[in-house]
Amino acid sequence: MASANKAINFASIGSLLPSSVEKLKNSSPTAQMKFRLSRNPSVKAVQSPAVESDTGKWVRQRRPHNVNGDFFVDHTCIDCDTCRWMAPQVFTRVGAMSAVYKQPISSEDRLKALQALLSCPTSSIRTEVPPADILEAQKTFPIPVDEKKLPGVYHCGYHSEKSYGAASYLIIHPEGNILIDSPRFTEKLARKIEMLGGVRYLFLTHKDDVADQGKWSKWFRCDRILHFDDVEACTSHIEMKLEGNGPWSLGDDIMLIHTPGHTEGSVCLLYKPLKLLFTGDHLVMTESGLSIMEMYNKSSVPEQVDSVKKLLDLDFNWIIPGHGRRIEFKDVPEKNAILEAFVQEKYNQYSSATNKRF
């Protein structure tokens, strides 16, 4: 089974970080890192007009930003970034949407492109010729994130438009598997997860990424977990509603941390054995760097920054967000140096928190 796209390693990549990290790097030996960032070749952006057919329905059009060849992205792309981190050898961002900048040549690149096609929440990735190997690509889900470093952790694929293309993950656990946020429901994926032991808990990081949680709950008869402050009509029947500020535990090795800000009930999941933190929309890695996605905040940006600061007290080396790239830190001191710099920069940025210091 093919491994998912590699995580960003902060030991080798640094231009993604805020400028304050450079100051840390120069002043603190624990924060010193050598940085390198590879970029996709630039593609000239051209406006792609939407086309209406005689029936009054919008026709999907191949964006002119795509290079010639079989794979292409059409104009329905919502710029969720999924294909760009799943298959960066093929897809890039042009004109506020994704586009194919290089057709896959190797079998590995083709598989990644097909996995991205299947995971696209809006079915905006297409091929000129129906792919004969699409069924083989479907069989690869869920995809191991990193079989050596993160055994038993899978990317489910099949992102849902209902959660703006958020990723869902599966932890294989001896006391019952945990599905983190909801992928788009498909019976093929459900049966593959059954083969891995099914699902005992469906943990929902926040109210935005619940997608097809009802269908998954019905299929696996699992207990759903969501903070009470994020419960809405569609999740009113959630089996386990977290109340208060936590933290809460699922057994001895999983901790749930309340990180309000993006939403009032945002919660992160810490899987202690692998030092792995699932952050939902609380903290993500975009193409531009670490982000709390202020423009999508539904509660309080200053509170969200305070919640990022809480992560300094946790022992983890990995961040797997709901959107964007996974992050691997060299060690906890590096993690803390980077998060301290990020939080301080945000405190300086927002007037309501300018007097806060570490």
From TrEMBL:
Residues 165-323 form the Metallo-beta-lactamase domain. SUPFAM superfamilies: 4Fe-4S ferredoxins, Metallo-hydrolase/oxidoreductase. It holds the Pfam family Fer4_13. It comes from the Eukaryota. PANTHER family: METALLO-BETA-LACTAMASE FAMILY PROTEIN, METALLO-BETA-LACTAMASE-RELATED. This is Metallo-beta-lactamase domain-containing protein. The lineage of its organism: Eukaryota, Viridiplantae, Streptophyta, Embryophyta, Tracheophyta.
